[in-house]
Amino acid sequence: MVVTRILTRILAILALTFLFINGAATALDKLASDKLASVRKNLDIEAHRGGRALFPENTLPSFANALTMGVSTLELDINVTRDGALVVSHERWLNPDLARNSDGVYVVPPGIPFIQLPLEDVKKYDVGQIRPGSAYAAQFPDQHAIPGTKIPTLSEVFGLVRKSGNEDVRLNIETKIDPRHPEQSPDPGRFVTLLLDLLAKETFSDRVTIQSFDWRTLQLVQKWAPAIPTVYLTLQKGSGATVTLEKTSEWTAGFDPADHGHSLPQTIHAAGGAIWSPYFGDVDAELVAESHRLGLKVVVWTVNKPEDIARMIDLGVDGVISDRPDLLRQVAGEKGVMLPTASPVSP
Length: 347
Fold this sequence. Notes:
The chain has helices at residues 2-41, 60-69, 119-122, 135-139, 154-164, 188-201, 215-224, 264-271, 285-293, 306-315, 325-334; strands at residues 44-48, 73-80, 86-88, 170-175, 208-212, 230-234, 275-278, 297-300, 319-322. The protein is α/β, with parallel strands linked by helices. Helix 6 (188-201) crosses helix 7. The protein is globular and about 55 Å long.
C-alpha cells in the first residue's frame, strides 16, 4: 500500500511537471508569435513608382491606383526643370521608352535632361504607354496603358493625395541626382532647397521621407530639416553599384564603410540616417538585426515575386517597395500584416 501511494504521488508530480513545462512552452510560443505579429503589423507597404507593373510609372493614374488599392507609402522620384519646377520621373531626362511627342513619336535616345526644359515643354509629352516592342515593355506585359498621360509635378501628386482624403499615406521622395553627372541636375544645395521650400508651401513636410543614392542631398536635408527622416539607398552588386564596404565612393558624401567596421548599417548610422534602403538581394537577417540594434529601419527595394516578398517579411524588414503592390498586399496579409486602408480616388 505504501509503495502504491508513493508511486501514485510520483506519477502525479510528473504529470503536473509535464503540464507546467508544456504550458510554459506554449506561453513562450505565443509570446514569440505575438511579438512577430506586432512587428508585422508595422510593415511599410510601398508602391514603387506608384506600382509600375500595373499602370504607367510615376503618373497620377499609377498613384491613384495605389491609393485606391491601399498602400502606406507612395514611392516616387523627382527631377528639376529649367525653370525650377519639381517633376516626377525616374530618369533625369525624357525616357525614350516612355515619352512621345504630340505626333505620337517617341523621343530619340538618350533623351533631353529635364534641367534643359521648361515645365511648359515637359507637359507636352505623353508617358502613358511603354514603347511597344521594347525590352522595357517586355518587363511589364500587364501594365494598363493610358495614352495621353502627362508627367506630373510633385504638387499635383500632393493634390491627388488630398483628393483621396487619406491622411495617413506617406510619400517616399527620391532626389534623382548623380554626382558623376552634375550637368544633368541642379547642385545638391539648390535641389534640396527647392524640395524643402515646396514641402513647406504644401504643408507636407510631416508626411514624407526623402531618399537618395547620392548621400550629399540627405546630409543637407538632415542639416536644414532635421525632422524629416532620411533614407539611404544602396546597391552593392553589379555595374550600377553605388557602395562598397572597402572604401568611400562618389555617392556616399565622404562616408567610408571601412571607417565603420566595413558595415553599411554602421556607416549610415554614423551619417545620421533614419532608414537604410538596400536592394533586397544585398540584405540578410544578420544585417536587419544589426540595423535594428542601431535604431535604423530597413526598407528593401524592389521586391516583386511573392516568394521574395515573403522571405523579406520573415527576415523582419520594416518595409517593402514593390512594382506589384497588389501582390505585396496579398503576401503581407497572409503573413498577418495589418493592411493599409483603401482610399478610392480618380486621377
